[in-house]
Queue: 2 jobs
Job 1
Amino acid sequence: MNGRRSRVTRALVRLYPTAWRERHGDELSAILEACPVGPSLILDVVLGALDARLRAIRGHGAVEEQLAFMTAARSLSAVAAGPVPVAPTSSAWPEVQVLAGGGLSRRQLLRRSLGAAVGLWAVETGAGMIGFLWPNLSTGFGGPVTLGDMSAVAARPAVPGTSLRGGAPAYVSEARAYIQLVDPTLGFRDGIDTDGSGATTNVRALYQRCPHLGCRPNFCPSNYWFECPCHQSRYDRLGTKIAELGPAPRGMDRFAISVVGGILTVDTSKLTLGPLPIALGQPGIIPSRGGTCI
Ligand code: FES
């Protein structure tokens, strides 16, 4: 046990510059042997060594070196509950006298700054995580979003001059979704589609986030497909990915929806991943109506 403690002590003393060790190494070793070794003590020694090395690099003389020792020894003695080293009394060492009077040393300042920075980082990270993960259970994105009846939704076309009845989507920013009629000749039908397929309600709510890297695909009014501006993934009007066009691994994701008394609600807390891509010309792809927009 004592052998291990001696190895730890030697390792800690070796952190200091050679010239510093030659003058104060034995005294520091004695203090370390008397201290209970813990994280706080190790942090003290590391910061003290860093301080001593910085002073050595800047070429300060014996006064600064003595100050570094006093700074380390004061704190370590406090940990060990032992006597505080006697401060020099020469008027040539005003900074040391300030320390003896209870002022902040550079090492203490470093330590407190480090602690404050770590604490601030922890608070910011924690607050950000809570804000990101906290579900919005009442309204808005993260929970159910009620959008109104067919005419209210149709009044919000994704592209001016297009219409739900014509096969183009509405865009509802509060749900971050495109709303499409599966069969444009029909309106909303009462019911629930927990998988977002629209098989019961004739409505599909497509999440605006591209499954590749998260860009927002735009609806193209010339071909009636969605086209992602980032890497050119293409999706038909109901969000099915065209296999040959772009790197997205699947179709656009879909929110669960319900229609009650003709009123559409999109549940943005329940997302179903889009289906696998389908090759051009195969059943399941709605053909384009014209040229691309990108
Ligand atoms: S982000 Fe849409 S294709 Fe890359």
Job 2
Amino acid sequence: MHVKNPRIPLAAAAAALVAVLALLLAPTPLRSRVQATALDPATTTPAGTAPATTTPAGSPPRPTTPGGTTTDPGNTAADPGSTVADPGRTGDDARLPGATEPGTLPPVVDHGPRTGGKVALTFDADMTDAMRRQLHGPNPPSYANLAIVELLERQRVPATFFLTGKWVREYPELTRRLAANPRFELANHTYGHAAFTSDCYHLTPLPRREMTADVARTFDVIAPYGGRQTRYFRFPGLCHDRTALAELAPLGLTVVDGDVVSGDPFAKYWQPIVRAVLSQVRPGSVIILHVTEANAPMTDEALPHILAGLAERGLEPAPLSEVLGDPARVAPRS
Ligand SMILES: [Zn+2]
């Protein structure tokens, strides 16, 4: 496991203390709505001015019980060691892949061991307010690439999906379908795809005081779907600094960047995506792709070629937790 930021217990403990204090003293309620009005290049065309007041499509998900791989949130006693000031985290979460000791600076991971032949296909499901306006406007695009999901299902390919909370609320049925697949893992990509640093592409920065609650809330939105839950988290645009990491320390998670950037957002052709992936990929790689269709319209066309190229190289897609290795090694629990 390649960890970029070694744990720094003292600083992390201090950060955790600050975070806990911040939570206690926060002037805004923890569950306050996140204002993520990031503009996406792809959503700027029809100048979405009408801020459609929509009722989110997300009816409360019915808990799924996919074949034998779930952590059932109901069947374990709460872990007394991780209950205090752990927003978005229960005792069960400590056993999920990617779980780390709350209060420690989250490790940042790019890839797994360079031995063996496993690689992780990861798909981000972005959803900003601008995208939501498009969805509820006159000619709604699709931000859910079903062709990708169907191909993975058909060929029984494992994958890991980094979901934003707002995407889950727009696509509850598809989320249910992802959760029900024993080869798919679910991970966290923030609530509304806002930036966690001041300068992150075109994304609107999230105020520091809202960072912890934003990510905690997203775990809360994804958790009821069951399936292969994790404590993996990816920053929008991969943008993070020490401040952002410190804000997430109370949540006990692992930050996953990735070492193979496919460049699939807003691609016009599938060939460059395939070339980018196959030229960078190595054993242990974490490949970053998008399942957002309208904002990554060539990914489903690239995917069959990527899968064929991986097979030619003797590389086998696996769930992220398997590629990264024993999650206990990310942060040994005492
Ligand atoms: Zn993203």
